[in-house]
């Protein structure tokens, strides 16, 4: 039996913190150079707003307009920011696909999520130029990003 919109949406909302951690792990496996990810400040809210919208039966495009948080963009290398943002969205789509699979979500749920993510990805492409939802703050990153830490807590120079 597949999960319907309401059940799948509620499960995504309830699992948002775990799914956000999974997104971070997925991102790291993809060799993303920047830590934290450019979408790190909104990824949990994307999950929550998508789950809420799905459960409520809202238009999928509305999820993006309800997101709040911070998105970091590289000021000196904007082209790299675009590449990193696309990679971050790819990782988030992978997490949503896994969640749908785990929930045995039906085609209606998968289509809704795909539409919501497509609208959010398109909206994120305009951040820093045309703006975005009122809840999103864009922070321009001027410094070189910190190197990725290896080995977990306590790793690094001593």
How does this model look, in words?
It is built from five helices and two strands. The chain is mainly alpha-helical and 158 residues long. A two-stranded parallel sheet has the order 1-2. The relative contact order is 0.19. The mean pLDDT is 86.
List the helices and strands and how they pair.
Layout: H1 5-29, H2 43-56, H3 62-65, E1 69-74, H4 78-103, H5 107-125, E2 136-141
Parallel strand pairs: 1-2
Helix pairs in contact: 1-2, 1-4, 4-5
The amount of helix comes to 55-70%
Sheet having the most strands: 2 strands, parallel
Number of helices: 5
User: Outline, from the CA principal axes?
Assistant: globular
Measure the end-to-end span: 53 Å
Write down how many β-strands occur, each being a DSSP E stretch of 2 or more residues.
2
- Give me the strand/helix succession: HHHEHHE
**What low-confidence regions span 5 or more consecutive residues with pLDDT below 50?**
none
Radius of gyration: 16 Å
- Mean pLDDT across all amino acids: 86
Strand content: 5-15%
The main sheet orders its strands as: 1-2
Content-based structural category = mainly alpha
Please provide a brief summary of the model.
56% of the residues lie in helices and 8% in strands. It is mostly helical and 158 residues long.
Which short descriptors sum up this protein?
two-stranded parallel sheet; single chain; mainly alpha; 158 residues
